[in-house]
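Reopening this ticket.

The earlier resolution said the output was attached, but the attachment link was broken on my side. Pasting everything inline this time so it's all in one place.
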Amino acid sequence: MALLKGIERCEYISGVMDNIHYLVWIKDKEGNLIFANKTACELFKEFGVGNILECPVETNGNEKDEVVKLKIDGDDLWLRYSSMSVLANGYDCILVLANDITEFKEKEIKVSKILDEKISEWKEEKEVRSRRLEKNNQEMYAMLNLAKQNQVGILT
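Inline output:
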């Protein structure tokens, strides 16, 4: 494949960007959207561009990797994203690569709740067993004392 130039190059890069499942967008330092791939545009349409762009992606010159939860119309949207400062045609911009991990986070939260419930049940069962064991120990101690007293009484 020969090195692409001009419009062919732009069309090729645009085609590649639109066919990846990651969300890709570029904002200028004022927060204005400069570019978004097809996947990002679909998400922007579903949840509203402003809601997604409020994602705290300022980088302060450093690459940043984070998970963020956005509350949109009462629903949670979880994004794992990387953002970095880039210089494009002399303009300082922020490039964001993101992945919608909402389904994964919902399952993780569900599993965490189940584990918390099980741990609580196990702690309660452990407490019941401990009380039962303590009661049994006290009864055995009392029986041993009684047996000792009876032996002493027989010998005297």
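Reporter confirms the inline version is readable. The first helix runs from residue 6 to 18. The mean pLDDT is 82.
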